[in-house]
Design brief:
Blueprint: H1 9-14, E1 17-24, H2 32-45, E2 50-54, H3 62-65, E3 75-78, E4 81-84, E5 87-89, E6 92-96, H4 103-106, H5 111-123, E7 130-136, H6 143-152, E8 156-161, H7 165-179, E9 187-197, H8 214-221, E10 226-232, H9 234-242, H10 251-265
Parallel strand pairs: 1-7, 1-8, 2-6, 2-7, 8-9, 9-10
Antiparallel strand pairs: 3-4, 5-6
The chain binds adenosine-5'-diphosphate.
């Protein structure tokens, strides 16, 4: 294989990756990281080689969601370059900004500092060959998103939202930012999280706590695929806290995420 030049470093570490996908949300707390972690382990379960970048500088949650708190990635030398080796769990290669900074420090990061740290994470990780690299973006739609998206060059973006009216405006903002002339990145689809709640003792009932079909209708309006609707499930929340994504154990959750994964793979 011909050696690439030093200034092509960005291309080097990402060149073995077939599909780069960014996961975005208009605002925090809608379940973006939950969706990313469950989608990652589902794709791995389906036999794909999967990597995950947790770039949520305001609150990196992948160390906790993957049970990797305190993990310290080692450095490896590849073709004369010092690279960060991702940490593997549940068949997913994980790199989190949380591996490198204390949470309370990450929270006060500002623009250029955060962007520089994330740039390094994008450029200097030994990903090797991957089918999918998922990129969990920070919530919102700011300069850091534009910079990161420009450098990471995703093939597509998954937007996560809840059906709630006020959250939908932020979903639209996200769609417009990615598909605008500036970035011009296609939206692979929308995931509606917290779509309804079904109590165990009333398995036929659906309670639309945050509203009904908000993202579904939005997807229709913007002619985008609705990749899936995820109900509010206690084990989803517990799985995030205990470090084992719920799609590895709860059949309802794993069915939902398999459906989403099929939409992503298609
Ligand atoms: P974000 O990444 O958008 O900030 P998180 O993924 O951290 O959001 O989710 C916020 C909180 O909501 C977490 O405590 C998570 O466990 C919980 N949560 C997310 N989705 C669900 C769901 N479908 N059912 C139950 N709890 C959920």
């Amino acid at each position: 294989e011909p050696k690439k030049k030093a200034e092509k470093k960005v291309l080097d570490t990402l060149s073995g990756i077939k599909h780069r996908i960014a996961i975005a949300s208009g605002k925090g707390g809608v379940g973006k990281s939950t969706v990313t972690s469950n989608l990652a382990v589902t794709l791995a379960k389906m036999g794909y080689k999967v990597g995950l970048i947790d770039a949520d500088i305001y609150g990196p949650s992948m160390p906790k969601m993957f049970g990797l708190e305190g993990a310290m990635p080692i450095m490896v030398e590849v073709d004369g370059q010092e690279l960060i080796e991702p940490v593997e769990k549940f068949g997913v290669k994980v790199i989190s900004v949380g591996f490198f900074v204390k949470l309370e420090d990450a929270l006060v990061w500002r623009g250029p500092m955060a962007t520089n740290a994330l740039r390094q994470i994008i450029q200097q990780v030994n990903w090797g060959e991957l089918d999918f690299l998922l990129f969990d973006l920070p919530p919102g739609t700011g300069d850091v998103h534009i910079t990161l998206s420009t450098e990471f060059r995703p093939d597509g973006v998954i937007v996560v939202g809840t059906p709630q009216e006020v959250a939908l405006a932020d979903v639209v903002k996200g769609i417009k930012m990615f598909t605008g002339a500036n970035l011009n990145i296609p939206i692979l689809g929308i995931v509606e999280n917290m779509a309804w709640f079904t109590p165990a003792e009333l398995p036929e009932n659906k309670y639309y706590i945050f509203g009904k079909d908000g993202c579904k209708n939005l997807a229709q309006k913007y002619d985008l695929p609705l990749l899936g609707q995820i109900p509010i499930v206690q084990s989803v929340c517990e799985g995030g806290d205990s470090g084992t994504p719920s799609s590895l154990s709860n059949p309802i959750v794993s069915d939902t995420f398999e459906q989403i994964a099929h939409g992503v793979v298609a």
